[in-house]
Amino acid sequence: MTSRNARFDFSAEVPGLETLGRVHFIAIGGSGMSAVARVMLARGVEVSGSDGRDSPVLETLRELGGRVVVGHDAANVAGADTVVISSAIAESNVELAAAREAGCLVLHRAQGLAATMTDSRPAAVAGANGKTTTTSMLTVALQAAGLDPSFASGGELTGQGTNAAWTGSGIFVVEADESDGSFLVYRPEVAVVTNVQPDHLDFYGTFAEVEAAYAEFAGSLRSGGLLVACADDDGSRRLATVAAGAGARVLTYGFDEAADLRLGEHRADDEGIGTTTTLHVPTGGSVTMRLATPGRHNALNAAAAYLAAADGFGADPQLVLEGLAGFDGARRRFEVRGEVGGVTVVDDYAHNPGKVAAVVATAADIATRRGGRLHVAFQPHLYSRTRDFAEGFAAGLAPADTVVLLDVYGAREQPMEGITSELVAGPLRELPGERRVSVGGTFAEAADALAAAATEGDLVLTVGAGDVTELASLVLASLRPGEER
């Protein structure tokens, strides 16, 4: 196995939690970093951290016992034995430079999380699309079955108010991030791959390298472990074939006739939110799966969770189904933010073409069932991703009646000449169908435009991995006449 990352050796042995000493997190407020910090605090590790701005997440970590400050300063690292960072932290960061000079052990956040899992039975959920929701569904399913897993996810479980917890039960469910190769660190007992698609090409370079990394991920399974892979996705199906050929235990799921767990009849309720799906299970016979979350893509996510729980960890299938029926979502995954005057506002984290297509198609179906229209604000995430997948984003946005394209959210990247949201707008305007497309403007202007376009029965959807999530509250305010924003 190779690490595939020049900064971190993800093939190296994971250090024991007891060897880490005091652990300092740089940019502790992020969803992934805060999840690791939560688990370490729960396990009795002395934790400190810093972030660029204060937030409710930082306050929660303080309440849990972390020493967390706002602002980056070399003095923050004093006394730390281990420093945890993400790939987004540059070597020039003053705290990281101080940690290197002091001889601290520097770990990627995935390595830090893996250190808390060395005495656990890990389930790692990976894939370009759906991994946060599938991680959350698997967690809830195992909870319903009485197995009480520890978990760490990129999104907060709506009904539980947290994205991570340590229970000591022995099972640990983790969302495994493929973007920088760090998913190779977990050595899972159960691995779930929802799909293998050409994403994060700024790191991998080519889709062939993406597929090779997933093959290494499947190869990192513990002896006797289970790979759960989607038969409806070409890349995941190829991975299943390769893994089975290498001797791994593999179960597939999907609407595909050849899937081990085949999804049959799939029906949405009258409003399009809840669904009922027939599952033809590997042992023969069929069961009925009911969900309160919309879309065929969520039925697939739930099917993956069902296999991982029932066949991977031996959970009672009926209790698993009850848990999935009670799943009420994860934050920023088709999260209903409010309704004003019969207009529903939903926020979603989708940021690659597959995710955008799935969430827009689902939202369009719901709007149609309500006799309304769909209005979407999309904020492209990363200049490289916008450059590489502009036409795919356009195709995914096509079902909307109104599309407001916000400026590209650069995140870790610097602007690239000629790479703007116009790259998405151009092909979108050329696609069949009638829709209004606009580009640019402030959040306030976008909120006013969306609110002006929406009438009773319509659905407004804000989409993207950047700060577009802030737009939903502005839309709701704009829908309320006279409300100060």
CATH architecture of the largest domain: 3-Layer(aba) Sandwich
Output the CATH topology of the largest domain.
UDP-N-acetylmuramoyl-L-alanine:D-glutamate ligase
Uncertain segments are: none
Residues in β-strands, percent: 15-25%
Helix fraction, binned, reads: 25-40%
Q: What form results from the Cα inertia axes?
A: globular
Give the helix/strand class. Answer: alpha/beta
Question: What strand line-up does the widest sheet have?
Answer: 8-7-9-6-10-11-12-13-14-15
- Tell me how many strands there are: 21
Query: CATH class of the largest domain, please?
Result: Alpha Beta
Number of domains: 3
Classify the oligomer.
single chain
Describe the sheet with the most strands. 10 strands, mixed
End-to-end CA span: 53 Å
Rounded average pLDDT? 91
Radius of gyration: 22 Å
Give structural attributes.
single chain; 15 helices; 10-stranded mixed β-sheet; Protein-Tyrosine Phosphatase, Chain A; 34% helix; alpha/beta; 21 strands; UDP-N-acetylmuramoyl-L-alanine:D-glutamate ligase; 6-stranded mixed β-sheet; 485 residues; Rossmann fold; globular
Structure description:
There is one protein chain. The chain folds into three domains: 18-108, Rossmann fold; 117-325, Mur-like, catalytic domain (UDP-N-acetylmuramoyl-L-alanine:D-glutamate ligase, 3-Layer(aba) Sandwich); 335-479, Alpha-Beta Complex (Protein-Tyrosine Phosphatase, Chain A). Helix 14 (443-453) packs across helix 15 (471-479). The protein has 15 helices and 21 strands. The strands form three sheets. It has a ten-stranded mixed beta sheet, sandwiched between helices. The protein has a six-stranded mixed beta sheet with strand order 16-17-21-18-19-20, with helices on both faces. Strands 3-2-1-4-5 form a five-stranded parallel beta sheet, with helices on both faces. It is α/β, with parallel strands linked by helices and 485 residues long. The mean pLDDT is 91. Helix content is 34%, strand content 22%.
